[in-house]
Amino acid sequence: MKIVAIIPARGGSQRIPGKNIKEFCGKPLIAWTILEALKSKYLDKVLVSTDDNKIAAVSKEFGAEVPFIRPTELSGPAIGIEPILRHGYEWLRDNDDYKADILLLLMPTAPLRQTQHIDEAIENFLKSKVDSVVGVNQVPASHTPYWTLVKNEAGKVTLFDGSHLKDRIVRSQDFPKKCYCWNDLVYVFKPENLYTLKPNLYGEVVEFYETSPLYEMDINTPEDWNEAEIKFKNLLKIKIR
């Protein structure tokens, strides 16, 4: 099977200028995603989709394929991820006669990801026979709907489901279900998902790939950046990375 990872990396980040190629723990941020992907035993191609020539040059330096510069109509912060992934898939199909059977989305803003996460997610996908596998980790108890507070239009504070605070579940062990959140480490999916009536990553049947919260980090702000560097260095110290 032909399995391709696409790493989307646009230029023009406002909150962290030059984010994707800014030095992070000794290497450009995007390099950590590229290098871990290249070590995968399943990936045939590691492709960076970018609208920025500097990002393209750095990505090539670290071993990624950058066969095109993303067109203007697919650039900018308002563009969703599905059109970008579809463009990459179609470019390979139409220009290289290469039709991927499985696609991966690897966000460059998740530099704590390791090769094992990529390979285990692919194995999960192949074993489960689903439309997609999504990287997640369990949500801390205080962030679940069971302990989340809302205020209605009248100013009344309730639990998320509208019930009174006095009726909240006291112990997290008694929650009726576990709750999970996306961690952006890895998405594995069928290319066909991008061509449904509402194009998406997930399809109809989705499976989790659960990882430790140790690896969760999506860098969007300077504060995120600082926290990610601390977590990255701590992983090195305890020899997990």
Strand numbers in spatial order across the main sheet: 4-1-5-9-6-10
CATH topology of the largest domain: Spore Coat Polysaccharide Biosynthesis Protein SpsA, Chain A
Number of helices in the DSSP assignment: 5
Name the CATH superfamily assignment of the largest domain.
Spore Coat Polysaccharide Biosynthesis Protein SpsA, Chain A
- Portion in helices: 25-40%
Taken in chain order, the helices and strands follow as: EEEHEHHEHEEEEEH
Care to describe what's here?
The structure is a single chain. This protein is an alpha/beta fold and 241 residues long. The protein has two domains: 184 residues, Spore Coat Polysaccharide Biosynthesis Protein SpsA, Chain A (Alpha-Beta Complex), CATH 3.90.550; 39 residues, no CATH class. Helices cover 27% and strands 20% of the residues. It has five helices and ten strands. The strands form three sheets. The protein has a six-stranded mixed sheet, sandwiched between helices. A two-stranded antiparallel ribbon has the order 2-3. A hairpin with a 5-residue loop joins β7 and β8.
List descriptors:
alpha/beta; 20% strand; 6-stranded mixed β-sheet; two-stranded antiparallel sheet; 5 helices; Spore Coat Polysaccharide Biosynthesis Protein SpsA, Chain A; 241 residues
